[in-house]
Design a protein that fits this description.
Blueprint: E1 3-9, H1 13-25, E2 31-35, E3 69-73, E4 77-81, E5 86-89, E6 94-102, E7 106-108, E8 118-120, H2 124-136, E9 139-143, H3 147-158, E10 162-166, H4 179-191, E11 195-197, E12 200-208, E13 211-218, E14 224-229, E15 231-234, E16 238-240, H5 243-247, E17 256-257, E18 263-266, E19 269-271, E20 276-280, E21 285-288, H6 292-306, E22 318-323, E23 326-332, E24 339-346, E25 350-357, E26 360-367, H7 373-381
Parallel strand pairs: 1-2, 1-6, 2-3, 6-19, 8-15, 9-10, 9-15, 10-11, 17-20
Antiparallel strand pairs: 4-5, 5-6, 7-16, 12-13, 13-14, 18-19, 20-21, 22-23, 23-26, 24-25, 25-26
Helix pairs in contact: 1-6
Bound molecules: nicotinamide-adenine-dinucleotide.
Length: 395
């Protein structure tokens, strides 16, 4: 039975970052990685952005194999025995470990119809499938108006495809952006050729005469309509992959609960990335973050802690995106349901949005404003209450 000083479950960005962290401290210890995908770890953000704008696919690889790791790919860890410090995979192999990292990520939510005709866009394989279809087909349904929907619709339109984007909210990215920015984006996408259908529930998708028929229901009028497309891609959120941890008796609540050292209910078991639910002191709340920066920073911290460093993880969430020729960076808690203060120097084209909770700035959106992330972090870390009207011009 293979034994590793460090065993990593998951083959994504968090896993790779953790191995980098381990190797910064321990160059000798044995490291094993069990990953369900058949490829070694790669960067996910280019799949919905850079690769559609000419970035070379050769540049996505993280070269994990160069760090002295036993990669066990195309395998899923199916059982964790905490007392024996042993993991079994779906191909009948068992492994023992000294330290374990659960970096199992998430699985896309699926619609109850459409089957394999819908591409739930998350992996390199999904990218290849959509890319191949975009060479043959013309008209694409894009279901969901969040991160994947907004990026994939822009990628398809930029590549000369018809994208029909349907989602239940009032505007693109409505869970993140204040209402006027979200509505501005509806128009902005339309000007670039995307058919934007806000306020719509997708209630059916079926194949007929070689085409896909998508049925929508208008959220306010209840009226139904059917649109014919050649292919469908969806980003309707993910569910954290907690089954392995839950079956082993580890604490699970919207992800795997970790302490500030990133230990998951057992001193030798850590969790990180999309699957980990952690406490952030500046935000004074627990959260689970599904972005690249969190995978990198949390993975690195978990790896270093597994190798003996033992420091807390207090990093504020950060993410970014490009939407056609617009772009943004976001720090902290950027939920449009919070009180927001928008500071537009040129309405909707450039500006800063502050997100407040309990009289403190909890998040900052930098909309086509650059090099202010550190200042935003400092503002969020300030412990004293802030008057919303003093925020304009602050960054
Ligand atoms: N730039 C980035 O940081 C970036 C880019 C891509 C993906 N991601 C991550 O990937 C993950 C997946 O992204 P996502 O876009 O799937 O999730 P999301 O939560 O960002 O968006 C989900 C969207 O789907 C809509 N939706 C839900 N049910 C629906 C239904 N039945 N019919 C139509 N629409 C429906 C929601 O209302 C919302 O608009 C997220 O965790 C995200 O953070 C991040």
């Amino acid at each position: 039975m293979p034994h590793y000083d460090y065993l990593i479950i998951g083959g994504g960005m968090t896993a790779d970052a953790a191995i980098r962290g381990i190797r910064e401290i321990d160059t000798e210890g044995s490291v094993g990685l069990i990953g369900a995908e058949t490829q070694p770890p790669y960067n996910r953000p280019p799949l919905s952005k850079g690769l559609w704008k000419g970035k070379s696919i050769d540049r996505i690889w993280r070269k994990t194999e160069e760090r002295g790791v036993d990669l066990r790919l195309g395998r899923t860890a199916s059982r964790l025995d905490l007392a024996a410090k042993r993991v079994a995979d779906d191909q009948g192999t068992s492994y023992t470990f000294n330290k374990l990292l659960l970096a199992t990520g998430g699985t896309p939510r699926r619609l109850p119809f459409g089957g394999d005709d819908v591409i739930y866009f998350r992996t390199l394989e999904d990218y290849h499938r959509l890319r191949a279809l975009s060479g043959e087909k013309r008209r694409f349904a894009v279901i969901g108006g969040g991160f994947i929907g907004s990026e994939v619709a822009a990628a398809l339109a930029t590549n000369g495809k018809e994208a029909i984007m349907a989602f239940p909210e009032e505007g693109v990215g409505a869970r993140l952006f204040p209402r006027d920015l979200s509505l501005f984006l509806n128009d902005y996408y339309r000007q670039r050729g995307v058919e934007v259908l806000p306020g719509q529930q997708v209630i059916d998708l079926r194949r007929e005469d070689g085409r896909l028929l998508m049925t929508l229901r208008d959220g306010s009028t209840g009226q139904e309509s059917t649109i014919a497309v050649d292919a469908a891609v969806a980003g309707i959120g993910i569910e954290p992959n907690v089954a392995l941890a839950e079956d082993a008796g580890l604490p699970v609540e919207n992800g795997i609960l970790v302490n500030e050292r990133l230990q998951a209910g057992s001193p030798d078991v850590y969790a990180g990335g999309d699957v980990a639910n952690f406490y952030n002191p500046a935000l004074d709340r627990r959260l689970r973050v599904e972005h690249e920066d969190n995978a990198n920073t949390m993975g690195m911290r978990a790896g270093r802690n597994m190798a003996g460093e033992d420091l807390p993880y207090h990093h504020l969430p950060f993410f970014y995106s490009d939407l056609f020729d617009l772009g943004y960076e976001a720090v902290g808690e950027t939920d449009s349901r919070l009180e927001t203060v928008a500071d537009w120097s040129e309405p909707n084209r450039q500006g800063v949005v502050y997100y407040l909770r309990d009289a403190r700035v909890r998040g900052v959106l930098l909309w086509n404003v650059w090099e202010k992330v550190d200042a935003a972090r400092e503002l969020i870390a300030q412990p004293s209450p802030i008057e919303p009207q003093t925020l304009k011009g602050r960054l």
